[in-house]
Every structure is written in C-alpha cells, then in structure tokens.
Amino acid sequence: MKKILFVNACVRGEQSRTLNIARRFLEEYKKQNPEDSITQLDLYDLELNYLTSETLALREQLLQENNLDHELFNLAKQFAAADKIVIAAPFWDLSFPAVLKVYIEQISVQGITFDYKEDGIPVGLCKAEKLLYITTRGGEFSHGFAKEYEMGVPYIKAICALYGIQNVISISAEGLDIVGKDAAEIVNKAMEEAVEVAKTF
Ligand SMILES: Cc1cc2nc3c(=O)[nH]c(=O)nc-3n(C[C@H](O)[C@H](O)[C@H](O)COP(=O)(O)O)c2cc1C
Q1: What are the pocket residues of ligand 1 if the criterion is a CB atom closer than 6 Å to any ligand atom?
Q2: What pTM was computed for the model?
Q3: How far apart are CA 64 and CA 144, in angstroms?
Q4: 46: domain range?
Q5: What average pLDDT does the segment 131-149 reach?
Q6: Are 81 and 74 in contact (CB under 8 A)?
Q7: What's the CATH code of the domain at 61?
Q8: DSSP assignment of the chain, as one string?
Q9: Does residue 108 contact residue 114 with C-beta atoms inside 8 Å?
Q10: Cβ(37)–Cβ(125) under 8 Å?
C-alpha cells in the first residue's frame, strides 16, 4: 500500500478548475490503485504561518538539539514520508498562491526533506518517487514570449530536485480567462490527460 499525499492549494473550492482536474486525477488513481491511501491537505484550512524571527529561532534551536519530534516538523515529516505526491495550485502572479510558498517554507527542513553532504552538495531525503503538479492559468504561458515568465512549474521542479524527488510531472490547463477561449473544453482536455497520467502514476 502506497501513501499518496495530496496538497491542495486551491482557494475557490467547487469553483476551482485546478481542484476539479486534481479530483478527476485522484478518482482515476483510486480506481487503479484501490489499496493505496490518499491523505488530503487543504492548505487554506491549516492556518499556516510564514517563518518569523521567533519561529525561525525556535526551529534553529530544535535542529541544533537534533529534536525533530516537535510539532513544527510534522508537515515536513509527512511530506518526506509520502510515496507519491500530488500538488494542485492555480497560477497566481506568475507562480502559485502564497499559501503554497508558506507550506514549502514549513517543509524545507534540513535533516528531514533534504540535507547537505560534507562537500556542501545538497542531498534529497524525501521518499517520494514521483510528484504530480496540477495547475491552471488564466493566460497562456506555454509558448511565445510569456514562456520564460512561467515560474510555477520550474520552481516546483527545482525544489523537488533539492528534496530528491526525481520524477516531476505537470498537467496544466491554460488560457482559461481569455475571452473567446472555450475554458470548459480546455479543462476537459486536461482532465483526459489527468486520467491517462493516473493510469501509470
Ligand atoms: C490572485 C490571482 C492571481 C492571478 N495571477 C495570474 C497570472 O499571473 N497569470 C495568469 O495568466 N492568470 C492569473 N490568474 C488567473 C488564474 O490563473 C486562473 O483564473 C486559474 O484558472 C484559477 O484557478 P482556479 O479556477 O483553480 O481557481 C490569477 C488569478 C488570481 C485570483
């Protein structure tokens, strides 16, 4: 039985196209892998806090004492222990909502999700073999001049490299807020892709 962690950074609930694509993926995944467990983390319900001078000092003190039992590290330990990870986040301000960055800040803990070798080279400590990143965008960023301004997928790939997660797959639906585009059709296509990805994820 594999442990799947689903990180939901979508704030618009039922309205969220990103969440609906993720749900379609998970539905198919569950069908294909009924014995696996899926834990859903709704980031907006967690009341996450960005690191402050106090929490950073506490974290550093705990790390120096090698005390990883503190609740401050629960999210990092959960992320590090997952076999497969799915993140759903809309494209906001050229990357993703701040709540996901705050979550990443919380899970990026040296000694839990990554570490450094003696020569200073980072080494990933996460168990996950794969991570699927699902996003939707109002505009089009997969081609043309805008491509280099898409910071969501490259950021997730980079942080996964630090965590030791080799296989990062992304599914995106874009152009959803462009007048004249058939947003429902674009979302449907992404759902079909999600179903295909679920068969081998
Ligand atoms: C706060 C905010 C910031 C956004 N920033 C961008 C952006 O930088 N580029 C873009 O193409 N669309 C942007 N959008 C549009 C969303 O990417 C698009 O509507 C997306 O499909 C929303 O996903 P959802 O339906 O899952 O909420 C933004 C939307 C919001 C609410």
Answers
A1: 10, 12, 16-19, 90-94, 136-139, 176-177
A2: 0.98
A3: 48
A4: 3-200
A5: 98
A6: no
A7: 3.40.50.360
A8: -PEEEEEE---SGGG-HHHHHHHHHHHHHHHH-TTSEEEEEEGGGTT-----HHHHHHHHHHHHTT---SGGGHHHHHHHH-SEEEEE----TTS--HHHHHHHHHH--BTTTEEE-TTS-EEE----SEEEEEEE-SS--SSGGGGGG--HHHHHHHHHHHHT--EEEEEEE--TTSTTS-HHHHHHHHHHHHHHHHHH-
A9: yes
A10: no
| Interval between CA 115 and ligand 1 midpoint (Å) | 34
Going by CA atoms, what residue is nearest to atom 27 of ligand 1? Answer: 16
Which residue, judged by its Cα, is nearest atom 22 of ligand 1? 90
Within 8 A by CB and 6+ apart from 24, the residues are 191, 194, 195
The residue length of the chain stands at 201
- Ligand 1 centroid–CA 139 distance in Å is 8
Q: Taken in order 65, 46, 42, 140, is the CA torsion positive or negative?
A: negative
Domain count, the chain: 1
**Contact yes or no for 26/38 (Cβ under 8 A):** yes
pLDDT-derived band of residue 129, with 50, 70 and 90 as boundaries? very high
Q: What pLDDT, in 10s, does the model give residues 107-117?
A: 999 999 999 99
Q: Which atom of ligand 1 is nearest to the CA of 91?
A: 17
Chain-centroid distance, C-alpha 61: 28
